[in-house]
Amino acid sequence: MSTTMIHAAERDRLLATYPDIFRRSFWQRWGLALCVGITAIYLTICFAAFNVGPAFMQGRWDRAAIYVQDWYSWRAQPRLRFVDGAVVPQWSSRRQYPEGADIDWLRPMADGGYSVIYEGEDNRLDVHPDRVDILVGGTVYPVAITADGVVPPEGAPAGVVFDGTKVMVDYGFEGSAEIRGSQVYVQRRFLGWANFFFDIRSPFWGKSFGELTNLAFLAERVDTGRSNIRHMVDDFLGNTAWQHADILSKLLQTLVMAFVGTLLGTLFALPLAFIAARNITLNRAANWGMKRLFDFLRSIDMLIWALFFTRGFGPGPIPGIAAIFFTDTGALGKVYAEALENVDDKQREGVKSVGASSIAVNRFGVLPQVLPVFVSQSLYFWESNTRSATIIGAVGAGGIGLKLLEAMGTNADWDKVAYMVVLILLVVFVFDGISNALRSRLIGKPMH
Amino acid sequence: MASGTAENTMSGLGPSAAAVMRHYQQQLRTRRVYTAIAIIVFLVALWASLDFANSANSGKFFERLPYVFDFIRNFVPDSPMEIVRAMFDLPSPYADGSLRYDYTSERVYITDGFYIPHFIYQLIITVNIALIATIIGFVLAFLLCFFASTNLVGAGATRWVVRRIMEVMRAFPEIVVAGLLTAILSIGPIAAIVAITIHTIGALGKLFFEVVENVDMRPDEGLRATGASWVERVRYAIVPQVLPNFVSYTLLRAEINVRASTIIGAVGGGGIGEVFRLAIGRDHAAKTYAIVILLLVTIIAVDQFSSWLRRRLIGQQFLDTARGAV
Predict the structure, then answer these.
(1) Lower CB density within 10 Å: C or N end of chain A?
(2) What would the pLDDT profile of B15-31 be if each residue is shown by its tens digit?
(3) Which segments of A109-174 are extended strands (E)?
(4) Nearest CB to B295: which of A253, A301, A380?
(5) Which superfamily is assigned to A244-443 in CATH?
């Protein structure tokens, strides 16, 4: 490789020919660095003003791990109580097992105690009436239960901690346990969502897929009044833990809000845009007034409309529809009017020259030009409103948004939140697909 | 009747022209039938949806309509000046010790003599949430988009993964991110910032990689011929072409984010949205209208400023097209 040499005359010639490349203005030279610098300073100031550092330091990150785990796994939380020389399991009202169920990780033992299996036989908790044997990796660490409390084991591994009143055992993802003088508080975690299909009251609870298929198509009726498939559907929708019927109907409400809101917005914006377009309605006052109306409807946030209408109509899909309808009439009207002002006049003149009425001129001279743009814009709005309707719902308009907010408020229903998020994502992807397909058919070019 | 007119028009035609005409008429009929079916399906869907919405609402539409008008009629401040007083935290002559007219106690004092009115302070927070989210979202979307475009990344897997990540970020409900972070970090603007940032990355990333895919590849070829690395090619061949479009999309996104941060605020992210929800929930008319006016002015100002900047950066044609990726 040889380096290209340029002599002085050549260099002067280049400088004279391309002065703008060699002598750039201040902004061209330093503009980018300046922008980056100002942005960095701004972000630093905001970082301090919003207390980002302290907020992250004080964040309850231990709980965050539990919340996130709750998205894809569930916890069984029995208390094993020491009552009169025996161990009695006690479940909360949110129990995942029916009365008297045969639980494979909670085995009764001969002396009236229970064995809680975490990770194989080597990692388990044997709860005897008078002591608890902690097994970690096959080694036994006995904890004696006395009238005064618990006696911690000697030489316990890192997962076993004694804090003065209780011994805490941590088995990682599999769960944990708190051994107290009166009871052992067991937490056992499993992958998946508990009782997603049937709750514990259903006769179909705990059945395998094969058994269910058999029940659905071959076996006798469980309930003589209705077929087994019908019974299963009823039990699935009526699942008290997951509230499928409620969640699905709320999801439908959200979809209806987006669909009806956008459709009504489109239907109203269409004629109004013809009034707002300067080349179609030759009345400056009407054009101006209609455009300001669009600006007004558009600029008042969807949130404001939603809260106003929620006060008026009461919670439910109607305020959501009204809010989307008002903002979309404004936004679509503006876009439509701009599209109308850009139409090709030749076609209108052609229709006009054969003596057509003004309605016919607009129908055959204007509408065919703008309809694909109109429909494609409306489809975009429909997609975007499917997402906005979720949030609008959360401020009180109802639908899945409110349901999500309620589920998050309890801080215990993160599995339900995950379920609703999955439903929303599914719906959004399906609708994106539908609207993309419709749009590419209308416009005639592939979109992605 | 339709076939009759078809026969009439065909009488003067030759056999081949008549066949074409017949074919045309047939297609026209099919098309009309399809249009009619589509309209009927649409109307049925609309009617069913309206019926469902009406029955799912806590009050029926026509039963509640009088209440709506009553609400609008009764929801007026005691005097128009009240709105100004609420907006700037001035003492009110209607003060009766209740929260409703107690504007002065909400002043946010910077120094002993100088205060920022409460609503304006909250508005500043909301706008800043949007601004921070837009900046961080822009940076991350900028870094990601080059890995999602067909003309820069040959590997199908990288592209596929990056695009799917963007899609999920775009579609993930903002309130869930905000809610999860609120549970961890307690109430505050950070949850709103993160929620909006994630959505911004997804939305801008999609627009950005579509821009990158449509660039002129000749500068890239030139650089490749000199042996430039991938980063150098992106920096000197792609970025100069796409930066104006990127900035324009980002400005558009900033507008949307101001609205989004208001809404997220209302569901627990703080800022003007929450204040507004409380004001309207407690029937404080003057406060509500003060906030509506403030929000209206802010949103119009942000829209105007960003469209002015965009028009300066690139032509008018761009203004209308970008709504799609909201």
Answers:
(1) N
(2) 888 899 999 999 999 99
(3) 114-119, 123-127, 131-136, 139-146, 149-151, 160-162, 167-170
(4) A301
(5) MetI-like (1.10.3720.10)
